[in-house]
Amino acid sequence: MSTLLARLKHVASPPIGLGCMNLSHGYGARVPEAEALRALDAAFDMGYRHFDTATLYGATANEQLVGRALRGKRDEVFLASKCGMAMDPESGQRVIDGRPATIRQQCEASLSRLNTDHLDLYYLHRLDRQVPIEESVGALARLVDEGKIHALGLSEVSATTLRRARSEYPVAAVQSEYSLWTRNPEIALIEACREADTTLVAFSPLGRGFLAGAVADPATLEEGDIRRGMPRFSAENFPHNLALLEELKALARSLDCNSGQLALAWLLAQGDDIVPIPGSRSIDHMRENLAAQSLRLSPSTLTRLNAMMQPGQVAGARYGAAQQGDIDTEAFTSEGG
After folding, report:
1. Model-level pTM?
2. Is 57 a catalytic residue?
3. Beta pairing class for 85-87 and 94-96
4. How far apart are CA 196 and CA 198, in angstroms?
5. Which residues form the NADP-dependent oxidoreductase domain (predicted)?
6. CATH number of the domain where residue 246 is located
7. For residue 108, how many C-alpha atoms fall within 13 Å in the half-sphere facing its CB?
8. How many domains does the chain have?
């Protein structure tokens, strides 16, 4: 069993974690603090124990929020955050910086914002192409030695980068986008993770709400919503992708669940070493997502799901050109990779 899975079991975490980003970052205006705190309190009460945040989210606001929400509950949760990508306070632009000094400074600031003396898992949010991955991982390893983090992870990296990183220090987890309509980890990353007993933490397991039927018309999304700039949600590609969703919805109805729950159940069926962390701004949706852990899919249902939304069927890459340049993951030919 991987280090991450062992620690999750220690806090009695269900196989589904909570991505906290949505409350502060990426999907339009931030959720008002009181409402966001109620949502995180409710998430804990309904059983979530794995909470994921990052320095980047809300320009540190999300870490502050999570820190307040988990005050008094720290020993009962598995807390993960990320370094190496932050908002520059002057330009308002994202900056990727994997230098050891930056990693240390961001970790210490994260610990302060999260009101804790350690993080259960700390990721390098993005590969800094100006810094050898071994140097960034070495800096994280020193934080493990000092007890400031208990395990280190990487985010949005390729199988090649993972193999280089683990030659420096064991990598407990890799966070990557993985869902029915984003199969990129299947190219090479899942195999590399299993070689090293590294857990794959799947972010956006609901396709940024698409698989749950939460986006009927991207034109109605709030200003500042990151999906407005993503090719799959463009006016050109979205109608095609929306038609693909109908088969998933029909299958979900036949199984007495919703499409989001079915998408999460499919992901859970890919292996115990894959941990989805759906995010939501809604308490009801958090509850629906957590309930997906009880679904058991037959071999025939899995066969049908596996055939849906294959890479060649989905229109558009998952990121626009600028964001694609910031990541290190493998891409399918149909995405221009």
Report:
1. 0.97
2. yes
3. antiparallel
4. 5
5. 15-307
6. 3.20.20.100
7. 8
8. 1
